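Annotated sample (chain length 309).
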Amino acid sequence: MSTHAHHHHHGHAHESGRPAYLAALSLTLIYAFVELAGGVWSDSLALASDAGHMFADSLALALAAGAAWLARRPPGLKHSYGLARAEVIGATLNGLLMLGIIVVLVVEAVQRLLEPRPVMAGAVMVIAAVGLVINAAVAFVLSRGHSSDLNVRAALIHVLGDLVSSLAAVITGAVIYFTGWVLIDPILSLVIAGLILITTLGLLRDTLHVLMEGVPSAVDLAEIGASLAGVQGVDTVHDLHVWSIGSDRAALSAHVEIGQLDDWPRILEASRELLHHRYGIDHVTLQPELARPAAQATVTIWPRGQRPT
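Output written by the structure step:
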């Protein structure tokens, strides 16, 4: 006999984030065309690469919005958990897209280092300054979402990458305008690529951890096992598993050994309350078992009143 408990509380968060994606997408796509035209006209790599980032951001935001929409779909016969992981997959695809952008940016920057070109510094400063304001507005809109949502984080990485790129383009224009040093253009592009790479790799690490059903980073598995074993009437806990269904939804399953099956309804309710209030875990499946001798245990167990070292 196993007992399963699940409370839905995440739908409104995703629904409220939908207008943010659409507003951010509209702003980004419109100005991407402006920056592209400005980059071609002024022959600035920093400005053209910033436009490329903004086009990629438009795709990333569209992908994020689509993933958020899929994640809101209810569970069905084919997907019993629903499609919550669509957001994690969307974040992974956005991270891979960002890696592609970094490669293109590095190749272009190296070519400009080898063959410097003149740049219309004044036009670069003006266009990049407007882009900086646009990117800041988009970042602000997205940052009002849930920071633990990998989908939001992925979209933010794209936009913040553009924000830094726009700032670098402004600096590039100013340096070239006052000093004539055109190498600042590719050099800053390489610096930006390095900064974005670090953030993107962190995002991909987190998304792959979820897809591999790793224990959520905010969860201490040993602590949860010891806490469950500490519930009155519980002897030991084993076969404990905690994983992420989506960006901010954790699930738990465990075998709980008890002395009397008649005590199970009370133990179950106490365990559910503990997991909800202390760890924020609501998707819980617990299997009650009559206590067995410790010598028969073949898996890691958490005895009552003890925490593993």
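Annotation: The beta strands are 3-5, 234-246, 249-258, 283-290, 301-303.
Annotation: The radius of gyration is 25 Å.
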